[in-house]
Specification:
The chain is an alpha/beta fold and 236 residues long. It has one domain: 3-Layer(aba) Sandwich (Rossmann fold), CATH 3.40.50.300. The protein is built from nine helices and eight strands. Bound molecules: 2'-deoxycytidine-5'-monophosphate. 2'-deoxycytidine-5'-monophosphate binds next to helix 2, helix 4 and helix 8.
């Protein structure tokens, strides 16, 4: 049986639903997922704990080069466990503060350069990778590139609901203001800004159900590679 390597890049702004869609697509093809935002979040946490400022490019690049990060699980829909040294930081990196921290540390070219080989190595055997610059920079030759987006209001609503599900009630206007700040920083930075790669398919998820979005992505995989999903619900 020939089994060609498949790399699916899913980029887009905060709250576009990248993680959920990536998990479903990864499950459909029995692939691992790579959450590149988690890498920047973990670096922001590591910096905070090491007393390195989020503005200190050289200090951050030094930490990035020896970031003691590992991923566990994460095959298909199985939850991804993020470890900093031995510690499970999967929950700790998801706070609004570390969302901003990740966006701040990711602005620095030296940080991005240090983390590029790490991401490429993790994607080697085939992957569904999500982030901001996967299709444009990290995996420019990915077989399939998707740019997921939705209106700012819709994305903020989803983020608020996600936070509420974790017991953190936040007013919608605060979530929207933080999201706008982060999107603008991610879009305007000089190195590897958030943007759709020229050959990415843009999927606007406003008014679409998760099932419909997953169908669109699976359709795109089939169109570009001829591959159809082996399974549709979780890994077995
Ligand atoms: O996807 P996320 O919200 O967990 O990402 C957190 C921040 O990390 C995001 O605001 C910008 C940065 N990031 C990036 O610059 N490049 C990526 N490929 C992924 C995330």
């Amino acid at each position: 049986m020939t089994c060609q390597r498949l790399r699916v890049a899913i980029d887009g702004p905060a709250g576009a639903g990248k993680s959920t869609v990536a998990a479903r697509v990864a499950a459909a093809f029995g692939l691992p997922k790579l959450d590149t935002g988690a890498i920047y979040r973990t670096l922001a946490l590591f910096a905070r704990r090491s007393g390195v400022d989020w503005d200190d490019e050289a200090g951050l690049a030094g930490l990035a080069a020896r970031l003691p990060l590992s991923f566990e699980g994460g095959l298909g829909e199985a939850p991804l466990v993020v470890r900093l040294e031995e510690e499970d930081v999967s929950g700790a990196i998801r706070t609004p503060e570390l969302s901003q921290g990740a966006s701040l540390v990711s602005r620095h070219p030296a940080v991005r350069a240090a983390l590029l080989p790490v991401q490429r190595r993790l994607a080697e055997g085939g992957v569904v990778a999500e982030g901001r610059d996967i299709g444009s920079v990290v995996l420019p030759d990915a077989e399939v590139k998707i740019f997921l987006t939705a209106s700012p209001a819709e994305r903020a609503r989803r983020r608020r609901d996600e936070l509420a599900a974790r017991g953190e009630e936040r007013p919608l206007r605060e979530v929207l203001a933080e999201q706008t700040e982060r999107d603008q920083r991610d879009e305007r930075r000089a190195t590897a800004p958030l943007r759709a790669a020229d050959d990415a398919v843009v999927v606007d998820t406003d008014g679409l159900t998760l099932e419909q979005v997953v169908e669109r992505v699976l359709g795109e995989v089939a169109r570009r590679t001829g591959r159809t999903a082996a399974r549709t619900g979780g890994t077995r």
